[in-house]
Design brief:
- This protein has 427 residues and is mostly helical.
- The chain has a single domain, classed as Proton glutamate symport protein, CATH 1.10.3860.10.
- It has 20 helices and no strands.
- 48% of the residues are buried.
Length: 427
């Protein structure tokens, strides 16, 4: 019975019950749809404030990056390059596998809304729209790109206030914790939301065909994450003559904790301690790991890219190359607002979809409830990839800066000895 207290078990039960009730009582599908929409509204309620406080505190805290100079610059460059590779990989795989193609279409307001959407994007209007004329109105309407621009400006200005800025940042971090506590309260309702999503899916026409498509999407995502970890990150480690399998074995306990909690935040202090014990400089560890939790979310980025393509394919929207580049640009911005907290991926996905003019609100409401049912399972893959990506980033940057005691690392992680001592230089 103790396993029933675990949220992912409750979600699985909710999914199973939703399938059963939807199959035997299809007339209740509208009830399931309403449940899913209520959950989405609860998520939307937090989007703007979470984006603002997360981005603001993240940028305001980069005073350490300035002091660290070269290390901080290399970390940010590494994060941008690797997270961009992750995003492009997710979109590329989605274009090849096409997980959303074949989703049964029903005559609905969503289909009508899609038909009215222009497939051309006016880039001048797009960038002009990013600048808010009234930030209160931007928050009220949930215009995420405008909130994001204001958050960046606010964070930069806050970082220049010295001691006063640190005090405000500290208070903002407390507010952000409150918001994430609210998110955790909403996440507790995810089994009910999963039940409603599956009830609406199975109770509607071609319900089981939709389940097959969702299963295909989930399998595609996990295989992409595995490829990213062992091929992309593996090659980066190999370039520095390091073994990713040995590193993963060294942090296997933390990986198991993430597997159980579906949150990379749950092992942040453990990972930092282990990397220092493995010979990485405390300067690098203290800088790279916390910053990476906001700027280097590889698993979340893969999920976002694939999810957008999945929804557009399911809606029958054929995105051209310019529209897909727009998706890349928007997600590179909005993904920086995701934290290592379970459920934040769905928040960022919703905010990103709202910023894309070719995916109207009514069309989103048709498929977002479907993703709720599998979000807990997807969150597991996101969290595992995120924590592994940040662990690799720390070791690689420490190695690149010669701020790692290779003897200790070889002994603790690689299980081999160095004949000659290597001096660690602290710049």
């Amino acid at each position: 019975m103790k396993h029933l207290s675990k949220l992912y078990i409750q979600v699985l039960i909710g999914v199973l019950l939703g399938i059963i009730v939807g199959y035997f009582f299809p007339s209740l599908s509208s009830v399931g749809k309403s449940i899913g929409e209520i959950y989405i509204n609860l998520i939307k309620m937090l989007i703007a404030p979470l984006i603002f406080f997360t981005i603001t505190t993240g940028i305001a805290g980069t005073g350490n990056l300035k002091k660290a100079g070269r290390i901080g610059g290399k970390a940010l460059i590494y994060f941008e390059i690797v997270s961009t590779i992750a995003l492009l990989l997710g979109i590329l795989v989605a274009n090849i596998v096409k997980p959303g193609v074949g989703m049964p279409q029903e005559t609905s307001d969503a289909a009508v809304a899609v038909a009215k959407v222009s497939k051309e994007i006016n880039w001048a209007d797009f960038f002009m729209h990013m600048i808010p004329s009234n930030i209160v109105d931007s928050f009220a309407k949930g215009d995420i790109l405008q909130v994001l621009v204001f958050s960046v400006l606010f964070g930069v200005a806050l970082s220049k206030l010295g001691t006063t800025g640190k005090s405000i940042t500290h208070n903002f971090e407390k507010i952000n914790q409150v918001l994430f506590n609210i998110l955790n309260m909403i996440t507790v309702l995810s089994p009910i939301a999963a039940f409603g999503g599956m009830l609406a899916t199975v109770g509607g026409k071609n319900g089981f065909a939709m389940l097959f498509i969702l299963g295909k999407f989930m399998m595609t995502f996990y295989l992409t994450c595995v490829f990213f970890i062992f091929v992309i990150l593996g090659l980066i480690m190999r370039f520095y003559k390091l073994n990713i399998f040995k590193l993963l074995s060294y942090v296997k306990e933390e990986i198991l904790i993430v597997f159980g909690s579906s949150s990379s935040e749950s092992v942040l202090p453990n990972i930092m301690s282990k990397l220092e014990n493995a010979g990485c400089s405390s300067t690098v560890v203290g800088l790279v790991i916390p910053t990476g939790y906001s700027f280097n979310l590889d698993g979340t980025t893969i999920y976002l890219g694939m999810s957008v393509l999945f929804i557009t394919q399911a809606l029958g929207i054929d995105l051209d190359i310019m529209q897909q580049l727009t998706v890349v640009g928007i997600l590179l911005l909005t993904s920086k607002g995701a934290g290592g907290i379970t459920g934040s991926g769905l928040i960022i996905l919703k905010s990103s979809l709202d910023s894309m003019k070719f995916i109207p609100e009514k069309a989103q409401s048709q498929f977002l409830p479907l993703l709720i049912g599998i979000d807990r399972l997807m969150s597991l893959g996101r969290a595992l990839t995120n924590v592994i990506g940040n662990t690799v980033a720390c070791v690689v940057i420490a190695k690149n800066e010669n701020l790692i005691d290779q003897n200790i690392y070889n002994d603790v992680v690689e299980n081999k000895k160095e004949l000659k001592p290597i001096e660690v230089k602290i710049n």
